[in-house]
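2024-03-11 09:14:02 INFO queue: dequeued item Tetratricopeptide repeat protein, len=747
2024-03-11 09:14:02 INFO validating residues
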Amino acid sequence: MTTVTKGQHTDSPFNKPRSRGIRASQQKLRTAQLAAGFKSQAEVVDKIQQIEGLKKAPRSLVSRVFRGESVDPLSIERVAKALDVQAWALYLDSAEVEHQSSNDAPENDEPHGIHANQDLLSPGTQPTQMQTPTNGEIQKAPQAEPSLDQPLTVEEHSVDDSHRDGNNGPSQPSAPEQAHQAQQKNKRMPFLVVTLIVLLGVLVIDRFWPMDNVHSSGSTLAGIVDIDNKVVAVMPIKGRRGADITRSIEQLLAGPTELIVGSSALHAGVQSPQELLRSKKADLVISGELVEIGRYIAVRLFLSRDEDMQQVWSGVFSKSSSQQYLELQLKNGLNTLLTKRPIADIADWYSLQRFLNGMQHFEGERSEQVILRAMADFQRVISSAPDLVHGYAGMCAALVEQNLQTSDKNNLEEASKYCSAGLEIEPNSVFIQNALGNLARVKGDYLIANAHFEQALHADPNDVTALQKMAESQMRIFLKSRDPELFSQISSQLEHAAELEPNNWKIPYTQGRAHYFKGDQLGAIDYFSQAAELSVNYQTLNNLGALEFCVGDLQNAKAHYQQALTLKPKHTVLLSNIAVLHFYLGENQQALDIFEPQIKRITEEGGPGLYQLWSNVADVYRTQGHTKKALQAYRNALSELDREVSQGEANVMQKASRLAMYILVTELSPELQTEPLLASLKEQAEALNAAADPVSLHQLALSWLHLGNEDKARHYRDKLRAICPGFAASPDFNALEQKTWGPQRET
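2024-03-11 09:14:37 INFO prediction written
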């Protein structure tokens, strides 16, 4: 699994065929050689010598690779670079190993042409083309977080290889010839089947990623490196944060070596470590490779001595990670050199990249497809590198997202298992701490969640994921306490995150949510507008529309709802918001034309569905006088909401919504109206008198109206009108204006 060499000279006569390492496919090598225009291996040798600036041609290295001997991964990488292909595209896969062991033909016989694609069948082999995911496609997803929608419910070509005999066809072969042909056909059949499977696989699998062959690569450990009294050179690492990483390496090595911090700038024009070694300017050279994937970077470091290059460390960072965190990770990685210990197992390079590929899915909106793709990446990391914390952290995070989409509590149980496994491997990993924090947050354990986020931030104060998720967790606490100092802390965290990642749409999105919960609707609209500019997606547009509805800007609200609908034409909450818009405009039938198909779908699929949907459709039925339908819809909404309240998971808004629905059910059911019940409902309404968010104010005004206290109803309606005049224009409050009992409205 590790990608290091044994420290041998790569062109030494003492090198013997290795029993451990990675083997290259001879057929793939020949194919790549011809494609590159090389007629012989000698030309490949010359190319490597030219690329690396070697004084001595690496003939032994190329010969071993082309003979299919077990070599270290970097040897294959050097050959691959000369052939202008990816190293994993040359790896020998399990299907070829099986064929070689059973094939009696000499090794230099022409191979079957389909071998070049057989590697697609093996889980431990590499694709013919690395496909890194892009962000150009807008993912259509459900809400990754509780939304602000709550105020409103706010091709393949077939190939015919058959041969048909006709009257004018060739004469029939003799019996021996037929037998020979049948034998040859039987030999080819398995390979034809493989070809068909490969073609199907290419059509079905949307992306592949390189993985080291864990069954053949083994664990090749380098010996102790003596750096005392050695001249060490550091070559500048190119790419995002490359200068910071280079400087950190220099600072770590400056003490025990003669290295001068900043001297890497002198090597900017050097093409390879061997150039420095050959010129006797250094005894040892540290160089590196950096790959950017989404918000993250993967880095690996190499140590070069003579003609030998070995990998000594690999890891991943956020592009916005603090210098403190970079230095800590590099120190841990280079500690074996500094303390003269044998170089230990190194995180598998391709598994790290696949992990970041999975994390990249989380940068956009969530959808079932996106979450499953991320899970596939993380599962392959676990399979290829079971001792790497990253795969477990990724699976834990993905299962939490799946729970937010499906509300299936089993997902949280599975997530907990993966998080626990990752915690045992590397408890201080920021990835596992963030996954644990998000798991606790979704469970409603906000203090536990914050403790995990604080641990991640202790390691990396610039961890944007921890900053944003912790703000979400603290918002839930703020909804209960309304503590202004806590809101200042939330705002400060999000401002810091925005400075670190100004193009991350989730930061202004979260800032908008925070200001909404505070009651600053205009401020929330500003932040949601920023988020929508950074990412045109369902979440940003829908919540922007909800806020515009709140302030009474129905024209822009309708425009943003319609724009979101083009991205998410069947999303329940969005359709519900549009239906509420019709309701506010007095277009009750148009509202029902949207609500009722959703109700039918939820009924057929089972489960109560979103309580906001049931509650909103109940309001329409109530205003039309359909009492039985209204009661049933309210009861469906309450069956879900009661569960949340009883488990202690409900916030103030949900408690206020629950109270209003109980009061409305009581009013529509005279047989339930008793003095003790009414007294209890009034007591609950009094207990919510400190509520300040728009949803709660709306529900309290509605509750007191139907409890017969117009003064209190008007008091909460006026408070609502001051911050959310759009919600205050609800048909439910016509009675307060007309002094008569008018149509009622609850959201």
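2024-03-11 09:14:37 INFO annotate: Strands lie at 232-234, 284-293, 296-305, 308-318.
2024-03-11 09:14:38 INFO item closed
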